[in-house]
Amino acid sequence: MLIIEKVLLLKNSEIFKNSRETDLVEIASICEECSFDKDVLIFSKGDKGNCMYFIYSGKVLIHDEGHEIVTLGENEIFGELSLLDTESRSASVTTLADCVLLKIEQEAFYDVIATNTDILKGIMRTLCKRLREQDRVTIEMKKVMS
Amino acid sequence: MLIIEKVLLLKNSEIFKNSRETDLVEIASICEECSFDKDVLIFSKGDKGNCMYFIYSGKVLIHDEGHEIVTLGENEIFGELSLLDTESRSASVTTLADCVLLKIEQEAFYDVIATNTDILKGIMRTLCKRLREQDRVTIEMKKVMS
User: Fold this and answer.
1) How far apart are CA A76 and CA B115, in angstroms?
2) pLDDT per residue over B31-43, tens digit each?
3) Strand order in the sheet with B31-36
4) In this complex, which of B91, B127, B145 lies closest to A127 when CB atoms are compared?
5) B128·A81 Cβ contact <8 A
6) Nearest 5 degrees, angle CA B35-CA B39-CA B42?
7) Residue A13: is its pLDDT beyond 90?
8) What residue stretches are annotated with the Cyclic nucleotide-binding domain (chains A, B) (predicted)?
């Protein structure tokens, strides 16, 4: 995959959509392309996580103890929390089709963002947005349950 | 309140607990002390938010359309998402007692973090932690509901 293709994939993701193309070239240069067959367990809940994945093609299932949490497809990302903090994986991920993924390792990522506040701010805004969405879901579920 | 007292309050909060004291002195210098009587609406859901609050003393209720979401007390914070992104308030806040709060305005905050990746990383880790907690709550609720 060319660097420019990687940049476009990153730009389409929620986490990097606010980042500038020049910053994304740096991130793209540390992305590693990797392929998985169908029905492969990529990581398990509780694993030490030190990378995140972008889905270039294919489909994966996020699951937890037999419960299906969500299905993700092209341009979507997973494992991003373990890239950003140092906690273990909070759910398991299995491929539902042959997949081509881009992998970003934590150490290389931290080298890039150490001097790049714009990327960090973009990520922070994305995390805030997801927290707001989660808060909304929790409040709605509480209303239904009460 | 002395700068050192403000630093200690910040250090006790989840959002800044991983930040260094030297960094917190910078943040403390932009904190404004403000008092509210009991039963005062500090902000309403939908308001444009451009600041966050630390509770030095007192108690507040976070609520949404008649639903009580959570009660917060000393050393806790609220309004932090609107400090970090540019969205409107996702819930309303009313004092349950006389309160002394520390207020941080967005513009001053961004000036400080523009050159300080460590503070940004600490905040990012905190947001990740909250997202993980929220994910856990959502999964548990889904299990209960199914």
Assistant:
1) 30
2) 999 999 999 999 9
3) B31-36, B99-105, B51-57, B77-78
4) B127
5) yes
6) 55
7) no
8) 15-130
Q: A135, B85: Cβ pair inside 8 Å?
A: no
Residue B122 pLDDT > 90: no
- At B50, list the tokens: 């451009």
Burial status of residue A79 (CB atoms within 10 A of its CB: 0-12, 13-18, 19 or more): buried
Give the per-residue pLDDT at B92.
94
* Nearest chain B residue to A138, by CA: B138
Distance in Å from the first CA to the final CA of chain B = 51
Residue A124 has pLDDT above 90, yes or no: no
The answer to whether B13 and B54 have CB atoms below 8 angstroms apart is yes
Q: What share of chain A is helix, strand, coil (3-state, %, to 5)?
A: 40, 30, 30
Say what the pLDDT of residue A45 is.
92
Q: Assess contact for B92 and B64: CB atoms under 8 A.
A: yes
More confident residue, A4 or B119: A4
- What single string gives the DSSP state of each residue in A89-141? PSSEEEESS-EEEEEEEHHHHHHHHTT-HHHHHHHHHHHHHHHHHHHHHHHHH
User: Of how many residues is chain B composed?
Assistant: 146
The verdict on ipTM greater than 0.90 is no
DSSP calls for B6-39: HHHHHHHSTTTTTS-HHHHHHHHTTEEEEEE-TT
